[in-house]
Amino acid sequence: MMKYALVTGGSRGIGRAISIKLAADGFFVFINYKSADDAAQETLNEIRKTGGQAELLKFDVSNSAETISALEKLASEKPDIYIHTLVNNAGIRKDNLLVFMQDSEWNDVLNTNLNSFFTITRALIKNMLVKKSGRIINIVSLSGIKGLPGQTNYSAAKAGIIGATKALAQEVARKNVTVNAIAPGFISTDMTADLDQNELKKMIPAQRFGKPEEVAELVSFLASDKSAYITGEVIHVNGGLYT
Ligand code: NDP
């Protein structure tokens, strides 16, 4: 039977690689994004080129009303399907020292990275529980574990999802729904394009940034039946950076 996945922020970067990988694994993938229509279309084309199945699902994850209405529309248009695998990947950075941080920098990062987790997961987990099969995979960050200066907003959001991952995992384990988090280190995407790779890679034991595909491989495993007994975990993909 066809399994369905929703990848938030699937138009670019890590989310694109995850969408492509899950489609190659046989999932029908709903690719969410906010505004980059061309990039989203490119992800969709790449999936279809290789015989995969996917569809675009544009909505702003930081807007709970918009999110709920997009998910309700999907449920009413396709009443016979349910999302088996949810990848909460959409995220933004708005770095600033706390002393200078604007309300909007705090709220935008919390709404996009953390509150979206609550809105989307609550909407989709019901069917997973009824079907007694599901996967929730949250893309967090090294920043949410060790904290990074200049990122109190982002570290708070990611640490918040880590706490929720551990709590929710215990709520739903008996229904065969697993909840895990992946904490990437430095991955080459638009989000890290402004960073000095040559300088930063010196402190990474692997001596390089990671590729989005290297995160997608772990998502693929966590979405599969092979990972059924792994839940409530935070798994690092960071070239040995975090000790
Ligand atoms: P990118 O900036 O390359 O891509 C971000 C994606 O999120 C885009 O698809 C974007 O859509 C989408 N997005 C952003 N805001 C919204 C929104 N409000 N609603 C819907 N979609 C949205 O980021 P990365 O691929 O680098 O990051 C992906 C995830 O991985 C994030 O959660 C990030 O925090 C995390 N991460 C990344 C690391 C890295 O080194 N790159 C390290 C650790 C964690 P659109 O194209 O429409 O703008």
How does this structure look, described?
The chain is an alpha/beta fold and 243 residues long. It has a single domain, classed as NAD(P)-binding Rossmann-like Domain (Rossmann fold, 3-Layer(aba) Sandwich). Helix content is 45%, strand content 16%. The chain has 8 helices and 7 strands, in the order E-H-E-H-E-H-E-H-E-H-H-E-H-H-E. The chain has helices spanning 13-24, 37-49, 64-77, 103-131, 143-146, 152-172, 197-200, 212-223, and strands spanning 4-7, 28-33, 53-58, 83-88, 134-139, 177-184, 234-237. The chain has a 7-stranded parallel sheet, sandwiched between helices. Helix 1 crosses helix 8, helix 3 (64-77) packs parallel to helix 4 (103-131) and helix 4 packs parallel to helix 6. The longest helix is centred in the middle third of the chain and has 29 residues, at 103-131. It is globular. The termini are far apart. Bound molecules: NADPH dihydro-nicotinamide-adenine-dinucleotide phosphate. NADPH dihydro-nicotinamide-adenine-dinucleotide phosphate binds next to helix 1 and strand 2.
